[in-house]
Amino acid sequence: MREVHVDTVRDHIRDMCIDANYNLGDDVVQAFEQSLKIEESPTGRNVLEQLIENARIAREEQVPMCQDTGFAVIFVEVGQEVLFVGGDVKDAINEGVRRGYTEGYLRKSIVSDPVERVNTKDNTPAVIHFDVVPGDKVKLTIAPKGGGSENMSTVRMLKPAQGRQGVIDFVVEHVKTAGPNPCPPTVVGVGIGGTFEKVAWLAKKALLRPLGEPNPDPFYAEMEKEILTKVNDLGIGPQGFGGRVTSLAVHIETHPCHIASFPAAVNINCHASRHSERNI
Amino acid sequence: MSVKRISTPLSEQDVMELKAGDNVLITGVVYSARDAAHKKLVELLDKGEDLPVDLRGQVIYYVGPAPAKPGQVIGSAGPTTSGRMDAYTPALLAQGAKGLVGKGSRNQEVKDALKEHGAVYFASVGGAAALTAKTIKASEVVAYEELGAEAIRRMTVEDFPVTVVNDAHGNDLYVEGAKKYERVAGEG
Questions:
Q1: What's the rounded mean pLDDT across residues B126-139?
Q2: Domains of chain A and any CATH numbers
Q3: Banded pLDDT at A162 (limits 50, 70, 90)
């Protein structure tokens, strides 16, 4: 067994909260620049220019790109030969979030109870997804998720007979309904298969994939392209002001499913498609 | 791209001249308020009490800023989703508010109230929060300090970039913009 001290996890998480919120990935900035080449609407182009400038300011001045610094959604892949020592790893992760959001001047957006709604004042607790994998390493990924785009998410239990076209229609219709609300240009995460809870997780996981990297299966890569074209043909455009670029990418993740089921889910990311990754 | 400049407080004439799709730079005072502050304001009105801020001619910005770093006037400060304020908005327009700034669609009641009271709904770029913060030159909490990021702030802005979505004449950029750029299946 390889021992990993939970303080190491805590310190990485702290830094990752700040890194993800200050430094927008090069893949996203490049997608903005590509979009400028195809956007025909003057107002849409102006939005894209503002987003490029905003990302530059955030990176240079080390400030959050968006005031909604998100729910700390954390994926932890734990090698089965890893032994955590020094305390509870969940507590360590939450302590890392607490330090990151406080020391990084990030907004605290979490309420302790969904109905009573009292702010926890330190952005904890995080949403943590653990997975056990072979090996003796730990992979941490944080994806701070804004409320505006998260609210534009959905799960639908389709009928198997609806097939490929059924999923395409469902996703396009959903992006149309979301309209300007999730801060387009967006990244559209699509989950297909599994069960009710699995499909939502897949849609979220799909958002972690770098932009420009298609699904490794050519069938789904083609489907991603087709949905992206259809979504951009909606004309919603940057910020919903009308234009060619509604989404920067569509990512599909799949899982085998029951003979009677055909679940599909959409999780939308705003253009601040933030994440940070570390390996221990 | 042409840009109009306006100063707050807004006059009847300022509002009537703005059209959906106009790109506008706002200079002057705007007041921040989001869900929790809206709820408190409308509760006061329901009880027949005065508001902590005179809203006549004023612009309300739906924002809950990030904390300011040392030396900053304010932390990153982009708009939040406006639809959550819809239930409260007609009452505040009746109090004389002339401009609303947020992002995302409004319901029909809000659109009707904009026409009825002569007011305009602007969107600023959601997520361009570091850029927007640079246009905010001063900020002080004027009510509900206990709400933290959701407190009402009096913000002095200079050339704050926004786009008119719903004007006082019933036009809607979200509907018209998408229609203009929509490609129907089969079209080139």
A1: 95
A2: 2-20+65-145 (no CATH), 148-273 (3.30.1330)
A3: very high
The total number of structural domains that make up chain B: 1
Single out the residue of A211, A163, A250 nearest to residue A26, CA to CA.
A211
Predicted local confidence at residue A140, as pLDDT: 98
Amino acid at B151: A
Q: Are the beta carbons of B23 and A43 separated by less than 8 Å?
A: yes
Q: Alpha-carbon distance A265 to A193, whole Å?
A: 9
Tokens at B83, concatenated: 């639809």
Residue B188 pLDDT > 60: no
Domain extent at residue B68: 29-155
DSSP annotation of B150 reads G
Structure tokens at B166: 């719903």
Residue B169 known to be catalytic: no
Q: Is residue B44 part of a domain?
A: yes
Taking a contact as any Cβ pair under 8 Å apart, which residues of chain B between 82 and 141 contact chain A? 83, 103-105, 123, 125-131, 133-134
- B23-32 and B3-7 strand pairing: parallel
Lookup result for tokens 């799709």: B21
Predicted local distance difference test score (pLDDT) of residue B185: 65
- Integer Cα distance of A245 and A238 in angstroms: 6
A121, A235, A271: residue with CB nearest B183? A235
In a domain, B147, yes or no: yes
* pLDDT value for A218: 98
Give residue-wise pLDDT tens across range B45-65: 999 999 999 999 999 999 999
Asked whether the beta carbons of residue A235 and residue B78 sit closer than 8 angstroms, the reply is no
Residues 30-49 of B with CB under 8 A from A: none
**B135 inside domain:** yes
Mean pLDDT confidence for A160-182 = 97
**What secondary structure letter does DSSP report for A176?**
H
- pLDDT, one tens digit per residue, over A119-140 is 999 999 999 999 999 999 999 9
Contact yes or no for A69/A101 (Cβ under 8 A): yes
| CATH code of the domain containing B44 | 3.20.130.10
Q: Is B161 a member of any domain?
A: no
Chain B interface mutation, best of A67, A153, A187, A268, highest count of B Cβ atoms under 10 Å: A67
